[in-house]
Write a structure and sequence with these properties.
heterotrimer, A alpha+beta (670), B mainly alpha (185), C alpha/beta (217), B: 6 helices, C: 217 residues, alpha/beta, two-stranded antiparallel ribbon, 7 strands, 44% helix, 16% strand, elongated
Chain lengths: 670, 185, 217
């Protein structure tokens, strides 16, 4: 097909453009030639156009069943429904890399557009660094993992079909969202590197990079939440997070990104911790690339990993080494100049944010250590052990509690010195939280109150501090409405995101401690009673899809005689791959999920089937909380102090030594 | 030409089988129907099959796997739980036959100390270090203030001092969460 | 570059002085992330290409687990560890349902002709199917034991079929082959090991541990 050939050429064009985008503006920067620096944005847009063409071409290849492409032949089939054909574009290694690069080109174009207010030399440098990353990854894509390889001269009659587990709505949204987040982490990285390159000692670039960090983090939050939700209803054993290496690969940049966001806040407001912020920006992107490496190189065992290929792994490793090594080298050579003797009070938001970052970094370390442990054990001959949920939960959960504890007070006290009667307020809040939590935990789960009790206690602690702080901020206003309007969007964003964290934490605690599972044998008209609900199998019937056959059960659910819902779980066999799949039926609601999955008939020819039933309280809170977190990031991003208007050079102030009495906001940046 | 096409189709089908084995995601977790004597027993069983690893799978626990060996191990776990064995007994039974990797909870022994103890210790070290640093800085800051006062240059005129006081007090009360008039410029 | 370095102010001088004193320390600290990262790169590089499958080898250097199982050809007779051969032998776990066992079978017949002693463990199989399997392809085993429940296989740390264990004259398991036995691993792994074990058995000694370590990898 000609379109797909066009896609390949567009990819090559993008590669050439990336090289140009690296070389030309660099010369422009080094020789102070404005015209050459001005090329950077245009090249970024051109690259974006080329990548869109390339990606669209691959999608067209899937849509029009172009089996002359090896990649299409491996992951598609004429019987596949059209929406899965399109999303199969990112169902395998090569195509998902193409998605990666397309999303990267999109971010670059967006940076190019929104950075028009930046000084040109800085803008050019940022785009150069972005292009450098693109150049290396496009080289890898074109030379080792091209999705445009042909099967000629033999064109297969039909393709091998998409893996049935991937034939699901989750595939359509989870990878794009996740990659938006992964790739987005390159933007704060590029800003930091550009600042180091230019030799800036001020902290203005932190304000420029903060909305980008928020956006990337927001997408990553949604991407991870989607992945968890998808695994929950797809895999059939009720789990929503397994601490699998590939899952961890996405969690680590998220954790580092969270630390980065908080560090950016400090650097922006107080001008301190610049070096830490740069370190975290490098760290977040490094973990993003490391994740890509782990998933595609075959060095760790995972259900999610793409087919392992050590050659590809080597290429990604080299790229990782160059990008992150280069960044850390730059950091080592120039970063130390940014350190400044910072002074801040013990009881201030700054010090709480230091603690916050310490805890988050240790949490990241826990995940990193656990994920890489098989490799470490192999390198130092420490014997084969498996590191899984028991380890991660044992260390990560207490860290989360500590974090929430710090978050309560830390996000609601003054930046510099807080003169309010904190000790008294604190003790009242602590006491009330403990009492409320203990009461609820006792009613809900008297046999094992620890998990729920502690989570509720720290959640109430945070909530009560938020209320105290809110009242404090609005008490001087003439009216409530006025008081609310006075509060900045970044404040609303912060509180929203923190509430999202609380909701997710409570969801996790409740569902881990209170979920009920039953595996029973049910035939027509059999009933089983689980947690107050009655599940009755009404009937079994055959179903047919475009590429599968199966059996569907009708299960009616009642509670105290009243109808709750009717569920239709299915057991399918996909025709091409002959793979059996169970499609669970879920009745989702805010307070609990009812989940029914079909297994196999009990015996050959029996009319009784093995049926799995779950009642999972508050599980939706986990993903709801995540969405609220991302919403918080969005709200923060919209704060107008991040809008950069073109300013004259004379207005820019470099705040050098700390203890700058006047914050940058008031000195002409707007 | 047709024979070649058919061969290619067969080859691709084999490739897909291989790929499926490599991708090896659970199509479904086999559902076994077991009878338990009590809720605690059932909870013990479920806890164990989530902790024990399937020896033949790409990183799955027994609960989430449908491999034949996972079925056998689940059956064995069920038998032992019904028999009244404790978690520790069942775990050591499995470890004796399959090694340490059969459980997802790494044993706590010198070779895994770095795994279990390094993060918490590092956290304590960081927080203690930061605490000590801020105390030290506060002492140093008091020292620096003295130096500034003694310096011959940079003595402030009363007008300058008033201006400094005004700026300092404004910054102290400036709360970045509340929009101020300056921000609206 | 920034202009801030050039401000001639006594206060700044003091600050600079303090900073300069720690400059060396500072530079060292800033190199730490790079060094840690390079270490990580080296570790990951060395791991590339290595198989990540878990190998269960708990049975090695231990006696064959105790069992009391019926003979396949005559299930009224119960076999125990005492019925196992006194000389080194191969213990092969097989089932008629296992496709790789079918592939492996002709080579086992060849091994029997070469004089290798093979004991078969029929794993979770229907006895009718098992016997017809042996009738069809031939019986390379000096005896076959029926492990219907799979308990014996579990005690051996089995993860699937076919798997083969090499047992020495004293009943200690010395090598564990996961997957089929074929010409390639016969030449590379099994034959050298058997030779060492046979040598030791002939002399009536226990095999020398270092020799075993060398030959039975």
């Amino acid at each position: 097909m000609l379109i797909t050939e066009l896609g390949y050429f567009a990819l090559l064009a993008a590669f050439v453009l990336a090289i140009l985008q690296v070389v030309l503006p660099t010369i422009g920067v080094m020789r102070h030639q404005v015209a050459w620096q001005r090329l950077a944005p245009s090249l970024a847009w051109a690259q974006f156009a080329a990548m869109i063409v390339s990606f669209a071409a691959l999608m067209a290849g899937f849509y029009y069943n172009d089996f002359s492409l090896v990649y299409v032949a491996q992951h598609s089939n004429t019987l596949l429904p059209w929406y899965y054909k399109l999303s199969a574009t990112w169902g395998g290694h090569e195509g998902s890399l193409l998605l990666w690069m397309t999303i990267m080109a999109t971010w670059c174009a967006l940076v190019s557009y929104f950075s028009r207010g930046l000084p040109l030399s800085m803008r050019a440098r940022v785009l150069v660094i972005l292009a450098a990353v693109q150049m290396m990854m496009l080289a890898m894509l074109i030379f080792t993992s091209s999705p445009f390889n042909r099967t000629l001269p033999n064109i297969p009659v039909d393709g091998a079909d998409l893996n049935p587990v991937l034939q699901d709505f989750g595939l359509i949204i989870h990878p794009p969202m996740l990659y938006m987040g992964y790739v987005g982490m390159v933007v704060p990285f590029a800003f930091c590197m550009a600042a180091l390159w230019e030799g800036r000692l001020d902290a203005v670039w932190t304000r420029w990079s903060r909305p980008w960090a928020l956006a990337a983090w927001g997408f990553l939050t949604i991407g991870i939440a989607l992945g968890s939700w998808w695994a929950y209803y797809e895999l059939g054993w009720g789990g929503w997070w397994f601490w699998d290496p590939v899952e961890n690969a996405s969690l680590m940049p998220w954790l580092a990104g969270t630390a980065l966001l908080h560090s950016l806040a400090v650097t922006e407001k107080r001008g301190v911790f610049k070096a830490w912020t740069i370190m975290l920006a490098i760290f977040s992107f490094a973990l993003s690339l490391l994740g890509t490496f782990l998933v595609r190189s075959g060095v760790i065992t995972s259900v999610h990993s793409f087919a392992a290929d050590p050659t590809r792994g080597l290429v990604i490793l080299v790229i990782l080494g160059i990008i992150v090594g280069g960044g850390l080298l730059m950091f080592a050579v120039r970063g130390w100049r940014l350190t400044v003797e910072s002074q801040y009070q013990l009881i201030s938001r700054v010090s709480f944010l230091v603690i916050n970052n310490a805890i988050i970094l240790i949490a990241t370390l826990v995940v990193l250590l656990g994920t890489l442990y098989p490799i470490i054990a192999d390198a130092f001959n420490l014997g084969q052990v498996s590191v899984g949920p028991p380890y991660f939960n044992a260390l990560f959960v207490p860290l989360t509690w500590l974090l929430l504890l710090a978050m309560g007070m830390g996000s609601n006290i003054r930046w510099k010195k807080d003169n309010r009667p904190l000790l008294g307020v604190g003790m009242v809040i602590a006491a009330s939280s403990l009492v409320l939590a203990a009461i609820i935990a006792y009613f809900v789960h008297p046999s094992s109150m620890l998990n729920i009790g502690v989570t509720l206690a720290v959640s109430f602690w945070v909530l009560l501090w938020m209320i105290v702080d809110f009242r404090d901020k609005t008490k001087n206003a003439p009216s409530m409405v006025n008081g609310l309007r006075q509060l900045r969007l970044s404040y609303w964003g912060q509180q929203t995101a923190h509430i999202g964290v609380l909701i997710a934490a409570i969801g996790v605690a409740f569902t881990s401690s209170l979920s009920i599972e039953r595996d029973v044998a049910l035939g027509p008209n059999d009933t089983v009673h689980v947690q107050g609900y009655d599940f009755t199998v009404k009937d079994f019937r055959e179903v047919k899809g475009s590429n599968f056959d199966g059996i569907q059960a009708e299960v009616s659910v009642t509670k105290d005689g009243r109808d709750v819902t009717v569920l239709y779980p299915e057991k399918r066999t996909y025709i091409i791959s002959m793979m059996p799949m169970t499609e669970a039926a879920i009745d989702a609601s805010l307070m609990r999920d009812l989940y029914v999955a079909l297994g196999e008939p009990i015996a050959e020819g029996s009319n009784q089937w093995a049926v799995r039933i779950y009642v999972k309280p508050l599980i939706r809170w986990i993903w709801l909380g995540s969405i609220i977190m991302a919403l918080g990031a969005l709200i923060s991003m919209l704060d107008n102090r991040y809008r950069i208007k073109k300013v004259k050079a004379s207005h820019k102030v470099a705040d050098t030594v700390a203890s700058t009495a006047v914050p940058a906001t008031t000195l002409g940046e707007k | 030409m047709k024979a070649a096409q058919i061969t290619t189709a067969i080859v691709l089908r084999l490739i897909s089988l291989v790929l499926i084995c490599l991708l090896s995601m659970t199509a479904y977790a086999a559902i076994d129907v077991y009878d338990f004597d009590s809720v605690q027993q059932e909870a013990q069983y479920r806890g164990l099959i989530e902790e024990l690893r399937c020896p033949k799978c790409q990183n799955q626990n027994l609960a989430g796997s449908d491999a034949p060996i996972a079925q056998d191990l689940k059956q064995k776990t069920y038998d032992m739980v019904k028999d009244g064995r404790s978690d520790a007994e069942i775990r050591s039974y499995m470890q004796e036959r399959y090694g340490d990797f059969i459980t997802y909870k790494p044993p706590v022994r010198p070779s895994t100390w770095v795994l279990w103890f390094f993060p918490p210790l590092l956290l304590l070290f960081l927080i203690a270090g930061w605490f000590w640093q801020s105390k030290r800085r506060q002492l140093v800051a008091q020292g620096v203030t003295n130096k500034i006062v003694d310096s011959p240059a940079a003595a402030l005129t009363p007008a300058e001092k008033a201006e400094l006081d005004r700026l300092l007090s404004r910054s102290n009360s400036l709360d970045h969460d509340v929009t101020s008039t300056e921000d609206k410029k | 570059m920034s202009q801030s370095d050039k401000t001639p102010n006594k206060q700044q001088d003091n600050v600079q002085h303090r900073k300069t004193m720690n400059k060396k320390q500072l530079k060292v600290w800033f190199l730490v992330p790079l060094i840690v990262f390079l270490g990580l790169m080296v570790m990951l590089y060395m791991r590339l290409g290595k198989p990540t499958d878990i190998v269960a080898n708990m049975a090695l250097e231990r006696p064959v687990p105790a069992f009391e199982l019926p003979l396949l050809s005559d299930t009224s007779r119960i076999m125990t560890n005492d019925n196992l051969p006194d000389k080194p032998f191969l213990m092969n776990i097989w089932g008629s349902w296992c496709p790789t066992c079918i592939i492996e079978h002709p080579f086992l017949m060849e091994l029997e002709e070469r004089g290798v002693n093979l004991v078969g463990i029929n794993y979770k199989d229907d006895i009718g199917d098992a016997l017809s399997y042996l009738n069809r392809g031939g019986d390379p085993f000096s005896m076959s034991i029926q492990d219907l429940s799979g308990q014996f296989a579990l005690d051996l740390g089995l993860t699937g079929a076919p798997e083969t264990f090499i047992v020495d004259g004293d009943g200690i398991i010395r090598q564990h082959i996961i997957g089929e036995v074929n010409e390639a691993n016969w030449q590379e792994r099994i034959m050298p090991c058997l030779m060492v074990l046979n040598e030791a058995n002939k002399n009536g000694n226990s095999p020398d541990p270092s020799q075993v370590g060398e030959a039975c990898k």
